[in-house]
Every structure is written in C-alpha cells, then in structure tokens.
C-alpha cells in the first residue's frame, strides 16, 4: 500500500519501497545488542501438519536478530509434543516449545483455579497469555512480537517491518500493529474486517455519536490482524481477552494504557493469505459466527466502560444502520476487486452481512443481560501479587517438560 496518508489519530508507517531489507535487518541487529527481541508463535499441533508452518520455519531460520522464539503448543499429547520439539529443531535461534497441556502446566492451571485466576476457556487468548507469562518470567527481552502460524505467504521481511517501530529506541512507539491487503486465490478476503468491523464502526458513530475510541479503531487498516509487536514493559499490566475478541481486545488495552502517539500501524506485506474460517451459520459457537459475536461484545464492552449507554432500542437501530452501511461498503469492495482483477461472491458476502447483523443483536442481548461480564484473563501483575512464585514455577515447568520429553 504505497501511499503516505496519515489520519492524525495514530501513526501509519508505510512501505514506500525506498529502503533495502538488508539495511533494515542490519539496523535491527544493532538494536538487538542492547534491546533483545523475542517472538511468540501461538499454535495448535494441527498447524504443524499444514502447508504454512514449514515455510514459516524456513524463513525464521534466516533471522539473525531474534534472541528467543517461544512456541505455545495447544491440543497436543505427549507424543505430539515430542514431534513438535523435533519439528522446531530447524530454528537457528534459542527457542522453546511450551506444552500447554502437560501435567506440569495443568497442575499450575489448578493453582490458578484455586485462586480464582484461571483463564475461563482454552484458545488463542490463553495460549498468548501463557507465552507472555513465560517471556515475563525470563526477564531478558525488551521487545516482543506475535505471529499467527497459518500464514501461507510468510516472508521474514514481515517480522522485520513489524518489530522495527518498537525496537528503534528513537521512536516513541510501545505497540505496533501490522496491516496488509487480504488477497488470495484471485479473491478479496478479510471478510470480518470488511463486512463487520468497518461498517459496524461507521454505524456506531452514526448511532451513538462521536467517540474517540471509535475514531481510534477506525484508524487501523486491518484491526483484526494477528501480527503485532510491543515493548515488554507494558506486558505485566496487559489484559488478554479469553474469547475471540483477542485482536480488538489488545488494541483496546493499548487505548486504555497508552497515549495515541505510542501506538502505530505498519505495512508489513504486499500480499497476505492464511487459513480461512468457515462462516458456520448454523453453529453459534464456531467459525466466523462465534468470532463476529465476540468481536461485537468486545467493542460494546469498551464503549460502555467509557460511558456509552446501550439499550435494546439502541441495538435495534444499530443493526439497521449497520446493515445499510455494510451493503454500501460491499458495493465499494466489489468495484475495487473488479478493477484489480479479483473476485467477490456477492451472494455469499450478503449472507455474511445478514449473519453479522443478527450477531450484533445477539451480542447486544448478551451484553444487556450480563453487562458486568469480563472475559479477560487476569493480568500477570495480579497473578504475581496473588502468588509471587508462580512465574518462576511456570518457567521452571516449561524447561522441565523440555528436558523430560526428548
């Protein structure tokens, strides 16, 4: 996306194709001498058997400025954990595979449960939270980044561009969010961002009025990207959502804890494609059906915390306004795709819009019935306050698993 537009809310760092990647990586290597950089890869065991991961490992093995890679492994038994350790041996950096389902980790989870601090559900949020805990326990990194593990078009350049804004000590940024065009197989992808988040934010502004938080979210070109980097000093007080509102939740935490000038978005790729979730219209707790509801709830909760009053009538108006906005945007996306030789199935897209409109009402109803619901995992500061030895015990358990399961 080679332009230089700034909207004034957060900084957008573009790729103007005027600098070599070799020069940027050399500068990162210099930064890393005094500001160590770590990478977190939250993954399911099943992702090790898919097309994306071998290429991701091949690309990462060429990166010389990383201090550590932390792989959070979910949904694996002991044999699969051993296989994962072998799988990741190709990495040239210091790395560890954290087996989140190991007996040691489950025992630690029971300790959290007894204190009322356990994550409410498994998933990417819990995986990221546990990996952040391990990183905090190591206490030796200044910068961290997170990548999804299903990126089919992964290049090591993505990581360099993602971490550079927070690794450069002369920049003010504490959080960097990656953005990119979602295209693949000659299609325009990114349905949830295009057909839910963008029109929902437009509709919210029309229905509830101007809100700085809405303008903040609208500033992000791809708010649902799973690629972001942070300075580690903010991690202990970061609240991680346990549901599918993880990406919106992290942006909301940046809004809560930081000034806008400390947050940026950065162009990390010209083409990005990954595994696509099914719409799952008949399963409220699966696929994009579940994801869209959780995203709506995350946005509603944050607006309510900032003083917005929601009622059943507000949600009915919001649904109608969203539906019209989404259809108008669909026309724009269709023409954009057509001009670039890409395809959009308008029937499928309108079905998605209809489902998302219903889920706005569903999320609103859930919010009204339980406005105090807080599906956040406790911050690591709180865990440390309740059990000062927990982080040390968790890092020791991960290392013990690594030593035992050869």
Automatic annotation (TrEMBL):
Gene3D superfamilies (alphabetical): Spore Coat Polysaccharide Biosynthesis Protein SpsA, Chain A
Top-level taxonomic group: Bacteria
Keywords linked to the UniProt accession: Transferase
GO MF, any single term: transferase activity
SUPFAM superfamilies on file: Nucleotide-diphospho-sugar transferases (SSF53448)
Name of the molecule in the record: Glycosyl transferase
